[in-house]
Amino acid sequence: MENTPRAGVPRPVLVVDFGAQYAQLIARRVRELQLYSEIVPHSTPVSELLARDPAAIILSGGPASVYAADAPGVDPALFGTDVPVFGICYGFQAMARALGGTVAQTGRREFGGTPLLVDTPGAVLADLPAEQSVWMSHNDAVTVAPDGFAVTARSAGAPVAAFEDTARRLAGVQFHPEVAHTPRGQDVLRRFLFDVAGLTPNWTTGSVIDDQVAAIRAQVGDAAVLCALSGGVDSAVAAALVHKAVGDQLTCVFVDHGLLRAGEAEQVERDYVAATGIKLKVVDAAETFLSQLAGVTEPEQKRKIIGREFIRTFEAAAREVAAAEGVQFLVQGTLYPDVVESGGGTGTANIKSHHNVGGLPDDLAFTLVEPLRTLFKDEVRAIGAELGLPTEMVQRHPFPGPGLAIRIIGAVTPERLTMLRAADLVAREELTAAGLDGEIWQFPVVLLADVRSVGVQGDGRTYGHPVVLRPVVSEDAMTADWAKLPYDVLARISTRITNEVPEVNRVTLDITSKPPGTIEWE
Ligand code: GLN
Prior knowledge:
Layout: E1 13-17, H1 23-32, E2 37-41, H2 46-51, E3 56-59, E4 85-88, H3 90-98, E5 102-118, E6 131-144, E7 150-154, E8 162-165, E9 170-173, H4 185-196, H5 205-220, E10 224-229, H6 233-246, E11 250-256, H7 264-276, E12 279-284, H8 286-293, H9 299-325, E13 327-331, H10 336-341, H11 353-356, E14 367-369, H12 377-386, H13 391-394, E15 408-409, H14 414-433, E16 445-448, E17 453-457, E18 460-469, E19 472-473, E20 481-482, H15 487-500, E21 504-509
Parallel strand pairs: 1-2, 1-3, 3-4, 4-9, 10-11, 10-13, 11-12, 13-14, 15-16, 18-21
Antiparallel strand pairs: 5-6, 5-7, 7-8, 8-9, 16-18, 17-18, 19-20
The structure holds glutamine.
Glutamine (GLN) binds at residues 61-65, 89-90, 137-140.
């Protein structure tokens, strides 16, 4: 546990995670209020929480029952520290119990939209209507509030649905203010953090850039730094931040494996370099990748070949740069959700760099620079935009490392890549023209290269390939649903692809959710 105040970030609002479905969402909501927030495991001792110098603490929901023998508790010492604390659901119940209130089953569980009755709004529920719908998900309820707390709201199944002790800056709610199903939820968090806890917003795109630039300078000094650009937003923004901090001490390497979509290599080589002034080494490895992939149809084998070739190519380029400049640091676009998922901020910084880039040899060990470690994806995009990176790059949908190779069902050939690039470009252009980029998480266009079907064009018989449109909506790629794109947009994409890509005579739509289907076809 990094248990001291961190370089490059303001005092955090710590979200203590009791196993909540929504812990990351709580942190995001706090950040939307321009306050820096991080998630910590519930096993963190109070002394360690305090060592982080938190601006406030939020106790999350969780699956346990607070009165069960092995339930994770809250150390009552937390409430004597002067740090403002807000409890949500389980965190609210745990807080009630630690302070001498009562938690029990009322015989009336509540799941989903539930009417909340605000009797005496107090500070946290100020200005809320006397009755509104909130999102509940609980078996237990607080039946008696601890001494000194005012009860401000109730629901049918939760006699104490919200309480507060503003003098001690402690409060909590039974419902989930962080989810969109609680329409006034963000107001509840805002009231607590600003009015009760007395915090001032200090986490903005501009402040993040300034703080990270200072932190990178402190870490890197005057040493040389290397970064692999993929064409994706994370590596592009990470490199741009490092470049802003240390200028030409940074060298970027772009391995063009020939499997990118139309215009993407040019975006990196031309627009990105023009926007940032970054020193870029381009390795054109398309022929090597294509010859290694020749005749390969099995998806896992494709992925393995591409992974292996990428490491080989990047390693050779890294050696050249290192020989010339003595590189000590490697930039990595690790995001905050990856950090949380690999142990809530514990120790991931120590993973050897070559694990992160998938197999660089030991004599090429670098220390990692990870300027996005504290950020969510939407924050990374905002920073990229502020740094003036090309919009197409900043707003780009997720695109897999193996690129178009896993969107060609069948063997990869230059002709098939050309076909798919043309079809994919049409889909992207029409989606953008319809103003729908922001609604869609990812939009694979897949070429069924080994399938043919009969068609008719200009009174002549055709025997061409189908493409599949696979637009999906998702929160986090773990689950996804097929996107209900307007028919007229689908129609334009279909007409243009069959007109503009001669080998394609049929366009189909994938209407499978994930699960059971994955987002990509291979
Ligand atoms: N497990 C607790 C209950 O059922 C809290 C639930 C929650 O935090 N969502 O009441």
